[in-house]
């Protein structure tokens, strides 16, 4: 047998092996992070200072079956980051579940917080949580739930580690006794819900729980790292899993699914991809990407109707986080992406001097675009 024949047979054998082997999804995350785009390169060239964690899930559909392939970059539940407003997704889901336990109360039932003059509905507060990340809306639902209920429900589902201990941007943020809700059963009948007394938060024992070299307490500069040990804890893996269970309940056994009625789940999904302008907010300030860090966090461009971003993002203490299911209905592209990074070059927390606009948002936006572009090419 001559040399050419041997080479031909070798190539043919290789092709046969390749064709018979199951297709393994390409690692788009590694490809995206290797991008030479300045917004990616700026972070990846000095990645150690940004405490970057990313989880990406490639989704394959084969008739009625779903295949999820996960890719991680520096994801570690033991490395703490402040989750900020990403915890609001938990508040929304668990509030809907609790409504199902109450008689004559639903999404559109009116209520107010004792001592508060604002009368609202559960639907309206949930909508504000996702459209503009309204802290007060979250805190009203927090009073409805209480810390213990939130943490107990999370633990019982075996979703992953988490600890919710406080409200957001409130004077009584870590108060353990909730303020009663007063519910309207009809136009003239109201009933107050009993307040709940919750356990005091215990300090978290995690790496990177102290951040920076100094921080402001009100207007006083404290030359010590900021201690997050009594703050909320909601790591990347848990965030990703919560969203995955919400988007794809059929992939889980009944006991692992969130106990939402069909109309509740659909309402929640609609709220998650609703843009501020759809609720009447001024689009000049509340532009489409205001709460959509992936793909649109660094631009005021309009998000096309074919693109649905179901997400909850958060920003505080220099940390930016987004957890999203991104779906292009026209090009049949879909994927899950969760990421966090710290942008605090001067090492001082609570001074509002963070690199959100220069580093964090451009990175997250470009990361989303890189993954989307790679997924779309694969679909062609």
Our count of domains comes out at 1
**Strand neighbour order, sheet with most strands:** 2-1-13-12-11
N- and C-termini, Cα separation: 41 Å
Largest sheet: 5 strands, antiparallel
CATH class: Alpha Beta
The run of helices and strands is: HHHEEHEEHHHEEEEEEHHHEEEEH
Rounded mean pLDDT score = 93
The number of helical runs is 11
Coarse morphology? globular
Strand composition percent? 15-25%
CATH superfamily: DD-peptidase/beta-lactamase superfamily
- Give a count of the beta strands, DSSP E runs of length 2 or more: 14
CATH domain fold name: Beta-lactamase
Parts with pLDDT < 50 across at least 5 consecutive residues: 3-24
The CATH architecture would be: 3-Layer(aba) Sandwich
Helix percentage range: 25-40%
- Helix vs. strand class: alpha+beta
The rounded Rg comes to 23 Å
Structure, briefly:
The chain is of the alpha+beta class and 380 residues long.
Explain what the structure shows:
Helix 5 packs parallel to helix 9. A hairpin with a 4-residue loop joins strand 12 and strand 13. With 380 residues, this protein is an alpha+beta fold. It has helices spanning 3-20, 28-33, 38-44, 88-99, 122-131, 135-145, 147-156, 236-247, 262-272, 293-296, 356-379; strands at residues 53-62, 65-73, 110-113, 120-121, 181-184, 190-192, 210-211, 214-217, 220-222, 226-227, 307-316, 319-328, 333-342, 348-349. The chain has a 5-stranded antiparallel beta sheet with strand order 2-1-13-12-11, sandwiched between helices. The protein is built from 11 helices and 14 strands. The protein is 33% helix and 20% strand.
């Amino acid at each position: 047998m001559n040399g050419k024949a041997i080479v031909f047979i070798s190539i043919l054998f290789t092709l046969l092996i390749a064709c018979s082997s199951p297709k393994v999804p390409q690692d788009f995350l590694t490809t995206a992070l290797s991008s030479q785009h300045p917004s990616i390169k700026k972070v990846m060239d000095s990645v150690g200072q940004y405490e970057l964690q990313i989880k990406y899930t490639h989704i394959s559909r084969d008739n009625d079956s779903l295949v999820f392939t996960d890719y991680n970059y520096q994801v570690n539940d033991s490395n703490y980051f402040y989750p900020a407003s990403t915890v609001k997704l938990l508040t929304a889901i668990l509030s809907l579940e609790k409504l199902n336990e109450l008689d004559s109360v639903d999404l559109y039932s009116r209520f107010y917080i004792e001592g508060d003059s604002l009368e609202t509905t559960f639907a309206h507060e949930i909508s504000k949580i996702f459209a503009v990340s309204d802290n007060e809306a979250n805190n009203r639902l927090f009073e409805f739930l209480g810390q213990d209920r939130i943490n107990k429900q999370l633990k019982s589902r075996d979703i992953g580690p988490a600890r919710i201990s406080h409200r957001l941007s409130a004077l009584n943020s870590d108060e353990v006794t909730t303020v009663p809700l007063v519910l309207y059963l009809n136009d003239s009948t109201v009933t107050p819900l009993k307040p709940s007394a919750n356990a005091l938060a215990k300090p978290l024992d995690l790496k990177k729980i102290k951040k920076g070299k100094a921080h402001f307490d009100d207007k006083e500069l404290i030359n010590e790292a900021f201690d997050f040990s009594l703050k909320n804890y909601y790591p990347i893996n848990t965030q990703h899993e919560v969203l995955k269970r919400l988007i794809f309940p059929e992939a889980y056994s009944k006991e692992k699914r969130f106990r939402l009625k069909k109309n509740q789940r659909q309402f929640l999904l609609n709220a998650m991809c609703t843009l501020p302008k759809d609720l009447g907010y001024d689009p000049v300030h509340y532009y489409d990407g205001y709460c959509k860090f992936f793909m649109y966090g660094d631009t005021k461009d309009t998000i096309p109707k074919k693109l649905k971003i179901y997400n909850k993002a958060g920003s505080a203490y220099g940390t930016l986080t987004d957890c999203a299911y991104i779906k292009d209905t026209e090009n049949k592209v879909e994927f899950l992406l969760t990421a966090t990074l710290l942008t605090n070059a001067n090492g001082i927390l609570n001074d509002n001097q963070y690199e959100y606009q220069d580093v964090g948002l451009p990175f997250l936006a470009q990361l989303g675009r890189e993954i989307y572009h790679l997924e779309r090419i694969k679909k062609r």
